[in-house]
Each structure stands twice: as C-alpha cells, then as structure tokens.
Design brief:
89% of the residues lie in helices and 0% in strands. With 88 residues, it is mainly α. The protein has one domain. The longest helix has 32 residues, at 35-66.
Length: 88
C-alpha cells in the first residue's frame, strides 16, 4: 500500500472517533447553532487535537507500517564510517 493511502487511513482512524466523541459530548449544544458557526467550532476543536495529540500518537504506534522501507534504506546507504558510529 502506498504511503499516501496509509496516511489517509491513519487520519481517518484518528478523526472518526474524535468527531464522534465531540458530537457525543457537545452535540445537543452544537445543534442549536447555525451550521457555519457549528462547523467553525467543530474544526477549531478538531484540528488542534488531531495535529498535536492524535496524529503524533498514531504515528508513534503505526510508524513502522507507514514507512518500513525508509529505515532499511538508511541503514544500507550509510558509509562505513557512519556504520561504525551507529554500532557504538
């Protein structure tokens, strides 16, 4: 699977439960607000939570799945001096 598709899947994995939680907690209060303002409030809550908390957490958990070949490539392309420094 391409990395872009993996990031899309990971974003969905983070955003779906977060939206569900926000709507569960604030749904009745939000429903009384006009749609553009409701969307603004929802995104003001959602974007920082996704950027600062959820995505770093998911990247830490699924990092090996997102870019497994990058780690292998870096080890193989090191010159002998860099390899010996990393082995210490």
């Amino acid at each position: 699977m391409k990395t872009t598709l993996k990031i899309i899947a990971l974003t969905w994995l983070g955003i779906y439960p977060l939206i569900t939680l926000i709507l569960w907690l604030l749904g009745e209060n939000l429903s009384q607000i006009i749609l553009p303002l409701r969307t603004l409030l929802l995104t003001l809550i959602l974007v920082p939570l996704m950027t600062l908390l959820v995505m770093p957490f998911l990247k830490r958990i699924f990092g090996h799945w997102l870019q497994p070949e990058t780690k292998l490539l870096k080890k193989e392309t090191l010159n002998p001096v860099e390899k010996s420094r990393n082995d210490i």
